[in-house]
Write a sequence for this structure.
């Protein structure tokens, strides 16, 4: 089992790869305070997001949705997305294929 570092990705936001394979990667994003931002971006990877804890307002394309513990959704390849943390917590994201830029 690999031991992956915790990487700061923004103010009060960290990322840690939990597991990876060329076809799939699982990553924890931890938000330490309300108001922390996962900036709008897009990528070729299909992404699934599971809310382990906390509360978040996500922008998915032209739609906004609020999600909390136990919620999950899929972000299609190329869709612009990002979030604002409403209550500190953790998102577990799956990416296919693997995000080599996270290694």
């Amino acid at each position: 089992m690999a031991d992956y570092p915790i990487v700061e990705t923004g103010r009060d936001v960290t990322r840690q790869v939990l597991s990876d394979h060329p076809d799939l990667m699982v990553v924890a994003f931890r938000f330490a305070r309300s108001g922390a931002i996962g900036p709008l971006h897009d990528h070729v990877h299909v992404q699934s997001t599971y809310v382990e804890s906390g509360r978040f307002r996500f922008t998915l394309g032209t739609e906004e949705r609020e999600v909390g513990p136990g919620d999950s959704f899929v972000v299609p390849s190329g869709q612009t997305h990002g979030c604002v943390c409403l209550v500190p917590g953790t998102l577990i994201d799956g990416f296919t294929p693997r995000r080599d830029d996270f290694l």
Remarks:
- The mean pLDDT is 97.
- DSSP finds no helices and eight strands in the chain.
